[in-house]
Design a protein that fits this description.
The protein has 308 residues and is mainly β. The chain folds into two domains: 2-37 and 153-304, no CATH class; 47-147, Copper amine oxidase-like, N-terminal domain (Copper Amine Oxidase, Chain A, domain 1). It has helices at residues 2-20, 66-73, 126-130, 155-158, 270-273, 278-281, and strands at 33-37, 41-44, 47-48, 56-58, 61-65, 76-80, 83-87, 92-96, 101-104, 107-110, 116-118, 121-125, 136-139, 144-147, 163-164, 188-192, 199-201, 204-214, 219-225, 234-238, 244-247, 254-257, 260-266, 290-294, 300-304. The strands form five sheets. Strands 1, 17, 18, 19, 22 and 23 form a six-stranded antiparallel beta sheet that branches. A six-stranded mixed beta sheet has the order 15-16-25-24-20-21, with no helix packed on it. It has a five-stranded antiparallel beta sheet with strand order 6-7-8-9-10, covered by helices on one side. Strand 9 (101-104) and strand 10 form a beta hairpin. This is Copper amine oxidase N-terminal domain-containing protein.
Length: 308
């Protein structure tokens, strides 16, 4: 059934692409993605760690709030003035806020950036986490700091409980086939937030969704995944009012990078501009209540819009 879903999406995508760009139009006129708003995220055993101070990149080095990671690793902390002591069974580390030198089991180690304090939290270079004898990997494409296992769970294992689709049926009134394309009538919805990522479903890993812009200033949703092929998973926007808008990733905005596929979905597409409805012409991500992921799950899956 998912293959049928893909075939339908492929046909829609082909039509949308031909409608938007004539066959004779030069490829140089096609938009190009020039920026993506992707905050650094720390994952412990493939789940995002929440923190009141965000990790960041400083002078090319990745800095992370050490307490949130250390608590997962079971290490001990002791702060005295500007000196932080971190220790576990094998390792004792002394750090000084503002210094680029760590003392590890009595030996000085030069870090690639200074230890910093921000809003009462101490941020340290990834080297410090690595010194605690745990697997640490920086992924520059996903902007992920992987700590521990990288085994991404199946969606069903991490999905919150589903609820009735009844309050959302009004949005599907013009697209009723979306509620039956798994072969069964779908009557529930799973509402997720950004912390649900990454997850796997039917062999595809969805790592994260972010905003991006092209060289003409238009906005997109970037989906970082392993979703390849001609017909990738489509998205749909719920709202404003009682509207639902399907979105497809044009073939010219699909980029392979370091083993991943970066697919870009326009916030505003040609079908919006062709309509007389003012709500369509003034479409923006801030007007969207949910971003649906049409992946063929047993319920509808909708991300509560984190960009409103």
């Amino acid at each position: 059934m998912r293959n049928t879903l893909k075939a339908v999406a492929a046909a829609a995508l082909l039509g949308a692409t031909i409608g938007s760009f004539g066959a004779g139009q030069a490829s140089a006129a096609l938009p190009k993605i020039v920026s993506s708003n992707m905050p650094v995220k720390v994952l412990f055993n493939a789940r995002v760690l929440s923190s009141d101070v965000q990790p960041k990149i400083s002078n090319g080095a990745v800095l992370v709030p050490i307490r949130f990671i250390g608590e997962k690793l079971g290490v001990n902390f002791a702060l005295s003035g500007k000196t932080l002591q971190i220790n576990n069974i094998k390792t004792n580390i002394l750090l000084t806020i503002g210094s680029q030198i760590a003392v590890v089991n009595g030996k000085s180690v030069e870090l690639n950036e200074t230890v910093q304090s921000e809003s009462g939290r101490i941020l340290v270079p990834l080297q410090v986490v690595n010194l605690l004898n745990v697997s640490v990997e920086w992924d520059s494409t996903l902007k992920f700091v992987w700590v521990g296992s990288k085994e991404v769970p199946e969606f069903k294992k991490i999905a919150p409980d589903a609820s009735s689709l009844q309050p959302y049926l009004k949005y599907f009134k013009d697209s009723p086939s979306m509620l039956t394309d798994t072969g069964k009538q779908i009557n529930k919805v799973t509402i997720i937030n950004q912390e649900a990522f990454p997850f796997q479903f039917q062999g595809t890993t969805f790592y994260r969704l972010d905003l991006a812009k092209d060289n003409k200033g238009a906005s997109y949703i970037r989906v970082s995944s392993t979703d390849t092929g001609i017909a990738v998973t489509n998205l749909y926007f719920v709202g404003p009012k009682e509207t639902l808008r399907n979105r497809y990733s044009p073939t010219y905005l699909r980029y392979p990078e370091n083993g991943y596929r970066l697919n870009y979905y326009p916030i505003v597409d040609r079908s919006d501009l062709d309509k007389n409805d003012r709500d369509y012409k003034e479409m923006s991500i801030k007007k969207v209540s949910y971003v649906g992921i049409h992946m063929g799950y047993e319920t509808m899956v909708m991300l509560k819009n984190p960009w409103r």
